[in-house]
Design brief:
single chain; alpha/beta; four-stranded parallel sheet; three-stranded mixed sheet; 47% helix; elongated
C-alpha cells in the first residue's frame, strides 16, 4: 500500500449519525492498523471495545506519515536524553529525526480539534515517557525520554490530556484521564467558543469542588486569577486559566481532599436534612476517609439528598458527575 493510501486510511473516522462529539487522538497501531515496524499492530481492546463507545478516534502514525514504510527496520533514540536523535537500530547511525519531524509537523495543526490523545508506550516516536535513549556503546542511559512525536504534541498542546494506553489499565489513572478529557472539552466548547469573563466565571463555578478535591491551593489561585480578570486581556486570562486549571486536575485527588469537598457540598443542604440523615452522611464520609468505603458510596448518598433539597448551583457541580454516568461502569473494566 502506498504512503498516501495508508495515511488516508488512518484518517477515516468510523462515525455514525450518533457519533460522540468528543474526538481524541490515538496511535494508529492501537486502533489495529498494521503500521508497526514488523507489519503488525498492537490493537487495544480498551480503546476499541470500551472507549470507542464514547469517543471518536483520529488515528495517526508519525513514522508512516514520515515515509518510513511498513514493514521497516526498527528505530531507537540515541545521544543526549534531553535532545535525542532517531536512528535505525542497526545501520550507519544516520540521523532520521528531521525526516520524522517533517512527516508529522503538518498534522499537528489539525490536532487542535482534539480533546485528548492516547499514545503507544515505549515507541521512539509516540512514547510519552520512559523511552530508552541509547549511548554510543549500545547501552541505554539511566535517564529516559519521550518519543519525538509525543514531545512535539505536548509542546504544541501543553494543556491537552495525553496518556499512554498501557497506563490506562490503572483505575485511578483511567478515571483521572477521562475526567480531564471532559473538562478540556467543556472548556473549549463552553468558554473558548464564545470567550467572555462571565462564561469563564460560570465554568469555574461548576468545577469549584472538583478542583478542591484535586488541589485546594490551585483552586484558590484560580479564584484569585478570576477576581483580577478585568485587569488583563481576555485572551491572556483564558490562556492562563486553562493552563492552571488542567494542571490542577492532573494532580491526583486525595481522600482528605475528597472528604473536604463532600463536607462542603453537604453544607448546602444540612439545614434541610433531618438529624439522622445528616449523621448517616457524615458517618459514610468518615468511613470513606478511613479507607473502609469507596468514594461511590458517599457520592451516591449525598446525590440522593441533593436531588431533593439541593439548589440549582450545587446540583450543577461537576464534582458529582465529572463525566457522563454512562461511562461509570467503564471503571470496572480496568481493574
Amino acid at each position: 500500500m502506498k504512503k498516501q493510501q495508508i495515511i488516508a486510511t488512518m484518517k477515516v473516522q468510523q462515525q455514525t449519525s450518533a457519533a460522540p462529539q468528543i474526538q481524541i487522538g490515538l496511535s494508529a497501531c492501537l486502533a489495529g492498523h498494521a503500521v508497526r515496524y514488523n507489519g503488525g499492530h498492537t490493537q487495544s481492546r480498551l480503546c476499541l471495545d470500551v472507549l470507542s463507545k464514547h469517543f471518536t478516534f483520529k488515528t495517526f502514525c508519525p513514522e508512516v506519515a514520515a515515509g518510513f514504510g511498513t514493514p521497516r527496520p526498527t528505530m531507537r533514540l540515541t545521544g543526549d536524553p534531553s535532545a535525542p536523535k532517531l536512528v535505525f537500530s542497526k545501520g550507519d547511525g544516520g540521523d532520521l529525526s528531521e525526516q520524522l519531524i517533517k512527516g508529522f509537523t503538518p498534522e499537528l495543526a489539525e490536532m487542535a480539534a482534539l480533546d485528548g490523545y492516547i499514545l503507544m508506550k515505549n515507541s521512539p516516536s509516540c512514547g510519552l515517557q520512559r523511552v530508552k535513549v541509547y549511548q554510543e556503546n549500545g547501552h541505554p542511559h539511566q535517564v529516559k525520554s519521550a518519543g519525538l512525536f509525543a514531545k512535539a504534541l505536548k509542546k504544541a498542546y501543553p494543556s491537552m490530556p495525553i496518556e499512554e494506553e498501557g497506563r490506562l489499565n490503572d483505575n485511578k489513572i483511567f478515571d483521572n484521564f477521562v475526567q480531564r478529557i471532559y473538562a478540556y472539552h467543556n472548556f473549549r466548547t463552553e468558554v473558548m467558543a464564545q470567550p467572555g469573563l462571565h462564561k469563564l466565571t460560570q465554568f469555574h463555578s461548576s468545577y469549584k469542588y472538583l478542583l478542591m478535591a484535586h488541589d485546594q491551593r490551585k483552586c484558590r489561585e484560580l479564584g484569585q486569577l478570576l477576581a483580577s480578570g478585568k485587569k488583563m486581556p481576555l485572551q491572556q486570562l483564558t490562556g492562563r486559566y486553562l493552563a492552571q486549571f488542567m494542571q490542577a486536575l492532573e494532580q491526583p485527588a486525595s481522600k482528605k481532599n475528597h472528604a473536604n469537598a463532600l463536607l462542603h457540598i453537604l453544607g448546602y443542604i444540612k439545614k434541610s436534612l433531618p438529624s439522622p440523615a445528616k449523621q448517616d452522611i457524615l458517618a459514610v464520609i468518615d468511613r470513606y476517609k478511613s479507607g473502609i468505603t469507596p468514594l461511590a458510596t458517599p457520592l451516591a448518598l449525598l446525590s440522593h439528598y441533593l436531588n431533593q433539597h439541593g439548589s440549582v448551583y450545587i446540583k450543577a457541580q461537576r464534582y458529582l458527575n465529572p463525566y457522563p454516568q454512562s461511562m461509570h461502569p467503564i471503571r470496572h473494566f480496568c481493574r
